[in-house]
Structures are given as structure tokens and as C-alpha cells.
Amino acid sequence: MTDAVTICECFARDGLQHEPTFVPTETKIALLEAFADAGFRRIEATGYSHPRWVPAFADASHVLAGVTHRPGVAFKATCPNPRAVERALADLERGAGAEELSLLVSASESHTRKNLRTTREHQWERVTEMVALAGDRFRLIGVVSVAFGCPFEGPVDPGRVAEDVARFVDLGADAVTLGDTTGVATPAAVTGLFARLDRAHPGLPVVAHFHNTRGTAIANAVAALDAGCRHFDSALGGVGGHPSRIGYGAGLTGNVCTEDLVSLFDAMGADTGIDLDALAAASRACEEALGRPLHSMVARAGFARSAAAA
User: Fold this and answer.
1) pTM for the full model?
2) Start-to-end C-alpha separation, the chain
3) Relative orientation angle of helices 158-171 and 187-200, to the nearest 10 degrees
4) Which of 3, 7, 92, 215 is most buried as measured by Cβ atoms within 10 A of its Cβ?
5) pLDDT in tens, 165-201
């Protein structure tokens, strides 16, 4: 395999939103610099959620102002509502804004109410307003949460997910992320949905975002890769999940481990563009920042060698 894949490092947003303890701004900035130094070209840096609901990102503007904005690296901020986009625009006007914005919807009504405190219909109205506000100032990433199953409603109709993706495409989104929010996807379901979307929207970057709640994230990532996906989200140490003050699901909530995903893809011959030594250093820095060992198996065992290097 000679295809290049793009991995977006999500530790600083999806990872930290699940942590009950606030990580200092200076630590976040240092981690983001380490991620960029390791070769990540897309990095989820923070979110513009209201600090009452997600206090981990009360320092969003300070983080984006403190990190080095460099050519070829896109820092992404998550926006749940129009007020969040207004904050993103204000930071951009000050010369320290994000390069990308994530715009959120949920594929189920119940998760929409729990996570976004509104209805699906109203959230789509908000997304339409958010796109208009953002204009062409950012690269826009649509996100469909609970795309493979909802913790409240159970299975989600793939047709509804396909409709949500099409709505994002019609609004001009540059890419769309499919979120397996509570880790219920299977390789067969992943293959079917990614193939369906590739037929409907050839050339659209569809990002695979898998959580490892049931130990299937790596298997699902390989299924997505085999189905033609070349864009993935992951988090160092396998941290993450729903905001610490908004609970749903059970077990290990975190993302697929970046270290494990990069190691496997590298061994398979997929070009991630990530420096393994720098990634190992970033992995250790993440564990130091949270003060505990995290969930990566590769962090304990070391990186696998690619077939070409063996």
C-alpha cells in the first residue's frame, strides 16, 4: 500500500473534554506544538463550547493565540452553535484564529437533545446559520455524531446518516466526519456506509472517527481504510469521549489510540507522514500532562516495523 492517509490528532479537544481536571493553558499549547512537530497536519486544538458546559475549553482563545500557526498545519476548533462561530471569527480578526471549524449534528434526536440541548431540526437551522457566518474564512468540517448507533435509541438508519452528509455537502462543507460516538460500529457496517458515501459523493473527504469503547476501533479503522477512506481522527493515549459534565454510555469512552493507529498503518505501508520518534515523545508528554498511564498498547510495547523495513 502506497496511499497517503491524513490523521487528525484530537487529544487536545475530544480528549481533554472528557477529563474532570482542567489542564493548564501552557500545557495545552506545548502539546499542540509537539503534535505539529511530529508531523500532524490537522490538529483538533480546542472548542468554543460554553465554559459552563465544557469548562476544559474556557481558555480556547488563549490556546489559539499561544500556538504557532505554521504553513501546512490546520488547527481546528469545534463549534456547536452560531455564538461559537462568532467567537471563532473574533479570534480570527485578532490574528489568532483556527484554520478549521467543526460543525456538529447528531444522527439521533435523543443524542441531539442530550449533547446539543436542542432538536435535530433546530440544530440544522443553526448549522445553516453557522455556515453563513463563517463564509469562506475557514475550512468547514461537518460532523455527524452517533453515525453507527445511539446510546439512547440504539441502531441508526444509515440512510439518515447519508442524508445528513448530503445536507453538509449542499451547505458547502469541505469534509464530513462520521462519529462512532460510543463505539458500536462493526467492520461490516463501516465498509457499507463508507462505500455508500463514496458512490454518492465521489471525492468528498469522509473522516473516520472511531471510539474504542468495545475494543473495535482499530478493526473499524482498517475496514474504513480498505473501503477507500484516507482521513482519520484519533487521540494520543486513547483518551476522550463526551464532555465530563454530560454523561452517557459506559466503559472506556476514548478514541482510537493515535500511537496504535499510526503504528499499524505504518506497518501496513500506508504513509501517515508522522515521525515515530516525535510521536513517542508526544505520547509521553500526554501521559505526563494527565498524570497517569494512558491506553495505548504501542506506548508500552513500541512501534511495529513496516514490511518494507523488516
Assistant:
1) 0.94
2) 15
3) 40
4) 7
5) 999 999 999 999 999 999 999 999 999 999 999 999 9
